[in-house]
Amino acid sequence: MKQHDLDTICVQGGYTPANGEARQIPIVQSTTFKYDTSEDMGKLFDLEASGYFYSRLQNPTCDMVAAKICALEGGSAAMLTSSGQAANFFSVFNIASAGDHIVSSATIYGGTFNLFSVTMKRMGIDFTFVAPDCSEEELNAAFRPNTKAVFGETIANPALKVLDIEEFAAAAHAHGVPLIVDNTFATPVGCRPFEWGADIVTHSTTKYMDGHGACVGGCVVDSGKFDWTRYPERFPGLCTPDESYHGITYTERFGLGGAFITKATAQLMRDFGCVQSPQSAFILNLGLESLHVRMRKHCENGLAVASFLQNHPKIAYVKYADLLGDPDHALAAKYLPGGTCGVVSFGVKGGRSAAETLMKHLKLAAIETHVADARSCCLHPASSTHRQMSDDELMAAGVPADLVRLSCGLENADDLIADLEQALQAI
Ligand SMILES: *Cc1c(COP(=O)(O)O)cnc(C)c1O
């Protein structure tokens, strides 16, 4: 069958009801599943038959929604997780262990930076952070013999730097490792990283995919294109028997298309249990049904607001890659030709305190630790999400102390601009 357009996958992907079945995806609110014989269940435990036995590992509702996101990204397999944090943790920990090393873009979400530089470092995994616009030489110099992956964000939160996916993928592949891309801000409506050479995609579905500030969630998608079996010593977890799972060799049993996600499910989800609930998956799917429609409006509002701010005398700078003259404009035009996202970053003249005054006076955009919601919201990262960082680290992460992150929702653009205008007057 012809691959449907993304708009159609948003609405109908992941679930096709049979005759007489529910039109909307069913919420299978059950921890467990019943079998007639122990033999039947044994086959599931041995991964010899597919089916459900316990919702910590897999649940039909979650699988339907994962299948939709998988189709949207053009992947081979996908899994939902409890949050974006869990998705990014799984994507890296599935192939890296104590003694291993990862190359990561420095401009990544504050929570991911913390996960990598503090918590995963405690687990013995080392990270080298590189500027997303570093030279090819700098990028190549970051690799070590024990490097297992490269990580970056399509559109960095909150720095809004656009990743040169092709360049990062080429460097990763030249060193025999996959490129993992967190595609949260772009969503597959804006960019499909697999088409540019990325191997694994992650999402915080909490953001645009849900889009209504209703449920925390994450997703990991595999392209199925990275050939782990070319480097069996580098990826023993995928290429040699898993003694903790009946001696299965994931690449042999599930092929390149299934190995990564099956291993992440059978090992990491089994042991860490970061599952998304079927209720949350159902709510997420409601968001996905309108993702393509909403993203266009978020982008329209983002561009209108960024253009207004760019010309305002009280604004020091605006960071929005769709603006002509933005340093990332060419990358945005290449990777995100339909628009980047609704998030605009800017600095207010007068620094920290002026930024705080502005935010206090905004009436439509509420102060929230959130982005990518139908309702506009704003945040001062240096005093919230990124407060663990030193001023130097803030600068390296592309989040100077005076930066305000404004997430343009789905309201009328003129109303958003009028709200900003009156708040800027108060400074
Ligand atoms: C929010 C976010 C995360 C973390 O996701 P949660 O769902 O909050 O755990 C990871 N990456 C990016 C780019 C994000 O914006």
Structural key phrases:
13% strand, alpha/beta, Aspartate Aminotransferase, domain 2, globular, 427 residues, binds pyridoxal-5'-phosphate
Task: Provide a descriptive summary of the structure in words.
α1 runs antiparallel to α3 and α3 runs parallel beside α11. The chain is α/β, with parallel strands linked by helices and 427 residues long. α5 links the parallel β2 and β3. The model has no long low-confidence stretch (mean pLDDT 95). 39% of the residues lie in helices and 13% in strands. It is built from 16 helices and 12 strands. The longest helix is centred in the middle third of the chain and has 23 residues. The protein has 2 domains: 281 residues, Aspartate Aminotransferase, domain 2; 133 residues, Aspartate Aminotransferase, domain 1. The strands form 2 sheets. The chain has a 7-stranded mixed sheet, sandwiched between helices. The protein has a 5-stranded mixed sheet with strand order 8-9-12-11-10. It is globular and about 70 Å long. The structure holds pyridoxal-5'-phosphate (PLP). Pyridoxal-5'-phosphate binds next to α4 and α5. The site of pyridoxal-5'-phosphate (PLP) has 17 residues, from α4 and α5.
